[in-house]
């Protein structure tokens, strides 16, 4: 005789059902018959804890909570049954029918999987074919909705491709959903009421609704009708949708644009007008803010503008207006004065051009704007007065991408460039740059290049040939703008005469005894120390040695590498000498590339050795000139009892001259 358990299991698999049992607490629960894998397509161990509702695989939205109600009803009445949907995986929904009995503190149940035709939210095959044939090709959205059972809420059972594409949904994420599941809660409940009203009345109705789907706002006009079917317990509600979303967006956009345009015209400081292009230039339109501009209470259309023009400006304005022709449509600008209602005059900037006809055969119009620039004109007048009185020049300096220079703006009372026509400088700055002292021009151009490349401020002092042909010291300070789309650089700055300041600084440096460039002693300080050391040598019958050092071919360094590089070489020479000399020794820069070194208590032979060591250090040192070598010639002389400062310097200078004449880069003693 076959085993009953095996026979029951085979029958359950063939008929597609599960039989389960559990204690009252739900702790001991098990399948008696059936295969969850065949029934639901999932492993059995994933359903082992299915007794409580929250242990069950996620129930689909339309029937969420029905199984819990069934269990509660069975506990109260002993037996219950229901149909519900279960989501298995992300894309599969199963409709199940379950019967449960609660008796003697134990649970028993049987679950049966419904076929597609048995699902309450699936259309009968014949109806489904007809619906797809009718509605799938339509460009407008169409849906069908019905109740799974009498008294339940309406659910969508069909959506045509046009609707699903508009909502970015797949068919399986639409079918079986309630309006509340797809739209916002309030919108879904409102749509649910419309569908129910149509279902109950049995009459067609048109509904305009604004529905929120995700972040989108949909404007739908829906025509709802009822479709009865002999094969279903509840009727279908058919909805045809005309999507007005894009139209509504366009309408709102146009309305907003109109409001913004009107607001801009009424609040803008510029008055917009359109008039006939020929005398007497009758106005076709003028914005309302003209009344506010002129302080008038009358309508802007009734204002006679030409009557309010300053008498001295009328002829100039009429000539300007007559210059507009249909053949020349370029924009033109004029400033003139217009009388305010309080009697004073405003400076108005009129910018206009001939427009194209708004329609074929229409007459072109002169359109333009009137802008109150009184404040700007006042400030400009003040600026012109100020620039005429400041002791210098205010300028704009421009370098285009091709390296051409110009002065777009130049104002002030400085005499340096007074003899040059500003219009010529606005085209080409070379006439101004030629006024720079030839020795200073490379330094100036290098500073301009550095400022343009790094975007830093330009600050430089140089000598300029004035209108009286005399050299004057000036300082230029300017700030560059970021390069525009053309690649040009524009500096804004001032040029000030500092000749008196430079002269005073020179006198102060002479008094302080310090060379400004190198920080070494200057000639004045050297003479003081020579006088002291020579006096000491005479009193104590000591000796001292003087070395004169001159760099070889220093002009080539300036010509090749620029004055900035030359200055750095001079500073480097000073540091090399300081590193080699004793603390009591003195090194001074006499001027240019010539240095003097005072060696107290030093005999001629020791001075010669030191001079040779300095010569070698200079020749071997890398001054950062791309490998170019710097050399020096040195002349050495020892103090004699009958020497004064001039004779000692003269003997050292003759030794230096001999070193230069006999080949340079050498040391010569007297």
From TrEMBL:
GO BP: any one term: cell adhesion involved in single-species biofilm formation
UniProt cross-references to CDD domains, sorted A to Z: GGDEF, PAS
Record domain GGDEF: where: 542-670
GO CC annotation, single: plasma membrane
Gene3D superfamilies: 3.30.70.270, PAS domain (3.30.450.20)
Gene Ontology MF annotations: diguanylate cyclase activity
Ranges for domain PAC: 458-510
Documented EC number(s): 2.7.7.65
Catalytic activity field: 2 GTP = 3',3'-c-di-GMP + 2 diphosphate
Requisite cofactors: Mg(2+)
Superkingdom, natural source: Bacteria
UniProt name for this protein: diguanylate cyclase
Organism in which the protein naturally occurs: Modicisalibacter xianhensis
């Amino acid at each position: 005789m076959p085993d009953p358990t095996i026979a029951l299991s085979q029958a359950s698999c063939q008929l597609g059902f599960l039989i389960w049992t559990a204690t009252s607490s739900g702790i001991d629960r098990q399948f008696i018959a059936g295969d969850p894998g065949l029934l639901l397509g999932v492993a059995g161990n994933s359903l082992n804890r299915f007794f409580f509702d929250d242990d069950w695989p996620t129930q689909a939205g339309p029937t969420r909570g029905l199984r819990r109600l069934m269990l509660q009803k069975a506990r109260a009445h002993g037996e219950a049954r229901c149909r519900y949907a279960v989501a298995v995986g992300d894309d599969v929904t199963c409709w199940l029918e379950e019967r449960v009995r609660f008796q003697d503190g134990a649970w028993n149940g049987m679950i049966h999987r419904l076929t597609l035709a048995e699902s309450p939210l699936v259309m009968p095959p014949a109806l489904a074919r007809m619906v797809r044939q009718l509605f799938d090709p339509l460009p407008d959205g169409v849906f069908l909705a019905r109740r799974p059972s009498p008294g339940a809420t309406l659910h969508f059972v069909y959506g045509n491709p046009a609707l699903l594409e508009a909502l970015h949904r797949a068919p399986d994420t639409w079918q079986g959903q309630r309006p509340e599941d797809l739209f916002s809660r309030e919108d879904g409940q409102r749509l649910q009421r419309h569908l129910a009203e149509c279902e109950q009345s049995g009459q067609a109705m048109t509904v305009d609704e604004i529905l929120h789907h995700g972040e989108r706002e949909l404007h739908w006009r829906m025509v709802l009708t009822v479709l009865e079917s002999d094969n279903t317990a509840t009727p279908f509600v058919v909805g045809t949708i005309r999507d007005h979303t894009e139209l509504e967006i366009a309408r709102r956009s146009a309305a907003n644009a109109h409001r913004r345009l009107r607001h801009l015209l009424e609040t803008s400081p510029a008055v917009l007008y359109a008039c006939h292009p020929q005398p007497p230039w009758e106005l076709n339109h003028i914005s309302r803010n003209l009344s506010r501009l002129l302080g008038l209470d009358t309508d802007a259309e009734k204002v006679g503008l030409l009557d309010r023009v300053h008498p001295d400006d009328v002829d100039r304005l009429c000539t300007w207006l007559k210059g507009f022709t249909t053949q020349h449509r370029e924009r033109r600008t004029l400033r003139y004065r217009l009388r305010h209602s309080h009697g004073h005059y405003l400076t108005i900037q009129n910018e206009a051009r001939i427009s194209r006809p708004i329609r074929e055969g229409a007459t072109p119009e002169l359109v333009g704007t009137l802008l109150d620039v009184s404040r700007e004109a006042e400030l400009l007048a003040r600026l012109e007065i100020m620039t005429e009185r400041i002791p210098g020049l205010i300028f704009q300096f421009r370098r285009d991408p091709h390296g051409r220079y110009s002065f777009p703006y130049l104002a002030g009372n400085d005499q340096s460039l007074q003899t040059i026509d500003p219009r010529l400088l606005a085209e080409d700055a070379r006439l101004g740059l030629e006024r720079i002292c030839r020795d200073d021009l490379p330094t100036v151009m290098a500073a301009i290049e550095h400022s343009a490349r790094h975007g830093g401020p330009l600050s430089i002092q140089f000598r300029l040939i004035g209108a009286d042909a005399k050299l004057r010291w000036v300082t230029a300070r300017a700030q560059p703008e970021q390069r525009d789309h053309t690649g040009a650089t524009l500096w804004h700055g001032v040029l000030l005469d500092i000749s008196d300041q430079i002269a005073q600084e020179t006198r102060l440096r002479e008094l302080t005894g310090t060379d400004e460039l190198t920080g070494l002693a200057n000639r004045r300080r050297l003479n003081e120390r020579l006088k002291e050391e020579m006096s000491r040598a005479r009193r104590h019958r000591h000796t001292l040695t003087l070395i004169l050092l001159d760099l070889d071919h220093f002009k080539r360094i300036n010509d090749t590498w620029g004055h900035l590089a030359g200055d750095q070489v001079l500073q480097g020479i000073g540091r090399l000498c300081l590193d080699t000399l004793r603390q009591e020794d003195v090194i001074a820069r006499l001027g240019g590339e010539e240095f003097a070194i005072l060696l107290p208590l030093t005999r001629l032979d020791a001075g010669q050795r030191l001079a040779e060591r300095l010569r070698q250090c200079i020749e071997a040192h890398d001054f950062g000139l791309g490998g170019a070598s710097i050399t020096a010639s040195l002349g050495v002389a020892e103090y004699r009892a009958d020497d004064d400062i001039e004779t000692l310097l003269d003997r050292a200078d003759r030794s230096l001259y001999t070193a230069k004449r006999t080949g340079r880069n050498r040391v010569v003693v007297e």
